[in-house]
Design brief:
This protein is of the alpha/beta class. The protein contains ten helices and seven strands. The chain has helices spanning about 1-10, 15-25, 30-40, 45-55, 60-75, 90-100, 115-120, 160-170, 180-185, 220-225, and strands at about 80-85, 105-110, 125-130, 140-150, 170-180, 230-240, 245-250.
């Protein structure tokens, strides 16, 4: 499936860029095999439960990364030097991105599932942090930011957090995001709040709720991204195991 997505985008490239992109595309299965081998859990949760379905959350994003690499490194000759993945989990997409862009990657997450062997293999680092309550590492500027299956977990109003990510990107930077589509089989989540507007502002003393706080429809997703300063370049849906997921390619203005 991922190969088909990538090849669909290659058609827009010149023949030479097409060849470069194809050579640059790593195999998701190889990354997953490395992570599975490094998983120290007794029940092999990653290999048995997560690896078989995770790419279905961000199918389009994997292909877009290769296109972004062609545009930056082959055409514009401005290669990516720093990537951040917010809530990277086991690190599959971050490791994939590090290979595509040929750059180091930083994972920011509240729990470390990213194993040392995976970090060493793909040139990754881990920083413990909560994207809503904490600053991004060392105020470093990034070329690419990734946030898959995290937006729906934010406990507070999303725009300030999205603005933090926007500010961390260099001009012209890329933001890849995935999140469940409320109108694509997931439905509304009114368990905690009756509307997006009812979600409270940041309160650092408030206990963290580990759940889907709000599932967005397209109008809401576009609204919060635009309010944070992002320009949406592409928005598609991938078919996840429980419903559809938005895949978004957004950017910070070049100047």
């Amino acid at each position: 499936m991922l190969a088909c997505v990538v090849l669909a985008f290659f058609s827009a490239c010149s023949e030479s860029n097409d060849l470069a992109a194809k050579k640059r595309t790593p195999a998701i299965a190889d990354v997953q095999a490395t992570i599975a081998a490094a998983d120290t859990s007794k029940d092999a949760y990653y290999a048995k439960n997560y690896a078989p379905v995770e790419a279905r959350y961000w199918t389009h994003i994997a292909g877009w990364m290769v296109v972004d690499w062609v545009e930056r490194s082959v055409i514009a000759q401005r290669p990516v030097t720093a990537i951040v993945d917010i809530g990277c989990g086991y690190g599959t997409l971050l490791a994939y991105a590090a290979q595509v862009y040929g750059a180091g990657g930083t994972c920011v997450d509240v729990v470390q599932y990213l194993q040392p062997a995976v970090m060493q293999r793909y040139g990754l680092t881990f920083v413990s942090g909560n994207i809503e309550k904490d600053s991004l590492p060392a105020q470093q500027a990034y070329d690419v930011a990734i946030m898959t299956e995290v937006l729906e977990h934010l406990n507070f109003q999303p725009v300030p957090t999205l603005k933090k990510i926007h500010a961390s990107l260099r001009p012209g930077g890329t933001f890849f995001l995935s999140t469940p589509d409320a109108d694509g089989g997931w439905g509304r989540t009114a368990k905690y709040y009756p509307s997006l507007a009812a979600i409270p502002a940041l309160d650092p003393t408030r206990a963290w709720i580990d759940d889907h706080i709000w599932q967005y429809n397209q109008a809401e997703l576009e609204e919060v991204l635009h309010a944070a300063g992002f320009k949406i370049r592409q928005i598609e849906r991938s078919e996840g195991p429980q419903g559809k997921h938005f895949n978004v390619w957004a950017t910070r203005a070049a100047s």
